[in-house]
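Reviewer comment 2.1 asked that we show a complete input and output for one of the modelled complexes. We chose the benzoic acid case, as it is the one discussed in the main text.
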Amino acid sequence: MTKQNHNVANEQAAVEEQLIQTVVDSFDNCTDPRLKELMQSLTKHLHAFIRDVRLTEPEWNAAIEFLTAAGHITDDKRQEFILLSDVFGASMQTINVNNEVHDNATEATVFGPFFVDDAPRIENGGDISGGAPGQPCWVEGTVKDTEGNPLPGARIEVWEADEEGFYDVQHSDGRVYGRAHLYSDENGAYSFWGLTPTPYPIPHDGPVGRLLENAGRSPMRASHLHFMVSSAGHRTLVTHIFVTGDELLTQDSVFGVKQSLIKDFVQQPLGTPTPDGRVLDEGSWARAQFDIVLPPEGG
Ligand code: BEZ
Ligand code: FE
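Response of the prediction step:
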């Protein structure tokens, strides 16, 4: 590099750095200290990215078009920005930061877009499938605190896709299936009939799906069953359990898999009696155990 080019490079860097400082300073009078911290840090990281990749103007335009398309497809049923956060691992990293490792507490993972607030109530041993197609699966376990004390009356929300990979809310006819809530009993135990989880793609008919395709990535999620578990005085747990042996465990499109959440879904030979004497028309069923440990609130 000639001396003159070197000077130009230095002057160029000075121009870029001056702009960052000016933008950071523009938030100095923000009276909300947290908002100020977020905006100033975001400014620095965003500008660092632009400078790192020497972002071109067509690339900047493409990014704006992408975000515009994400906005257009988003409504009260479809949230493309959450999908975008999911496929960048940003949702998962936010969960990691907010659910710090705590003794033996059960690990958290992504919430996903398919939870609904008013799922039917079932008793322990009831069936969440609501007639959805899939192999019946008996799921049982306990809810305890980190000292091993049972937590009676914990509210357990469970939801899952059918064997074709669809949640009820993905149909437009208002059907309700594959979801329910129940409460742990006086010993902290719970049980229900669900469906053996099967893999399915995240919604990929929009800009996020095109991004994955262009990047050579799959939209598939590893097979899973969602849980949200709450008990007064304890940290609410949002998680899923995954299926031992599922080929997609290492390629989950939203990076939600954690080793501790992979459970055996044990296939039961035809004719094996069910735990509650239920007679199954098709014969085959599976069973899984998931023991849940909640840390104290704020822990
Ligand atoms: C889900 O597991 O339901 C899900 C999670 C993230 C994106 C899409 C779906
Ligand atoms: Fe899901």
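The helical segments are 3-25, 33-53, 57-73, 80-87, 90-98, 207-214. We note this here for comparison with the apo prediction described in Section 3.2.
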